[in-house]
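Service request form, structural biology core

Requester: graduate student, group of Dr. S.
Request type: structure prediction, single chain
Budget code: on file
Notes: please return the result as structure tokens.

Sequence provided:
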Amino acid sequence: MDELTLREVESNAIPNMVAQLRKGFDSGKTREKSFRVKQLRRLFDMLEEQEDKIMEAGYRDLRKCKHEMVLTEFLSLKGEIRNAINHLDQWMQPEHVKKDLANLINTLSVRREPLGVICIFSAWNYPVILLLQPLAAAIAAGNAVLLKPSDLAIHTSNLFLDLIPQYLDKECYAVAAGGIPLSQAVLKEKFDHILYTGSSPVGKIVMKAAAEHLTPVTLELGGKNPCIVDQSANLKVAGKRIAWGKYTNAGQTCLAPDYVLCQKSIKDELVEHIKAAVKQFYGEDPKESKDFGRIINSRHFDRIEALLKGRDNLTLGGETDKDDLYIAPTIITDVELKDAIMDEENEIFGPILPIVVVDDLDKAIEFINKREKPLALYAFTSDSAAKEKITTRTSSGGLSFNDVMVHFAVLTLPFGGVGNSGQGAPLKITTRTS
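Core staff response, request fulfilled:
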């Protein structure tokens, strides 16, 4: 939020950084259980000992309040690290498989081995967890890692440039901070795996660069996540949970509901419940609330504000202040399916919620299926037949009933997209009774 210069690594230093990481991996020490556990504990120590500095960086980048930082950046991350430490011995054991007649006297097993040197590109909207959660997984798997934090979250990037070498083994883990030229230099190098979190257009660039070395990739992308609300839903619960998911981090969440599909008969009541939840969360004036965040920079502010120009169907919000990078929690009603804000390439990624009226569930599913597969799909319904229809007739990275975004924090479920919303992890389905 405040002015600060991004501290950058020189692009010509990248080949040597990658070579040093390769040397560290080839030494064999990342393969040892004791080394992995020590690094995971050091990562956990960093979160504990440097919590105030990390919190401050999140506030200065995105005006994130403390409880939002704890909920969205720290809790799940710490849980992942604890889970890795507790289960590492089990994960490292060979998995013995069934024998066929020709191999009765042989020992058959599958052994999980480290890939090598991993590159992690993180996004700016959750600059802590999206950098360190995959790092924890890579450490547990015995890899060396080059971290590339987002250059838009300047305070967080600068902080981790200092903290990572203080806490983790310098021969096996390094931070390459910088903008687009540095990212281009990184992508010229050969890695054993690349994980990228961000937009689909940049994901294509990463995938194309990886193809030059036949490097496998995990892409955590985004898209327009639909939220269906049917007549059987508890509208008060739906309104509160939709408002929480949409306006957390000022709507800058890849898993946030992008738009709502509902029938005309419940639209007005649902909107009133969303408005009531916004008032409960952020008070009469969200701009004065310590709990409501800000847009990351002026470029993204201009992009989001442009979606509001010339509209007379704002049911809530619409206020903006570029000097403060503030855009109010906003609801747009009676949005047509052909409206520009519903364009497939136009992920809102901000605190604007379009409400689209459809005739019935079949029409909602038809609209969703005509578009790219989303990272997440949400549906509020108490009808088991409707749940089954949505489950079997749609495809998305994650599918949650009667809640939004919570599946990300479930340690026992994988996370990822499908097609344009990402690749590298299978479907997740969670259910919460309202």
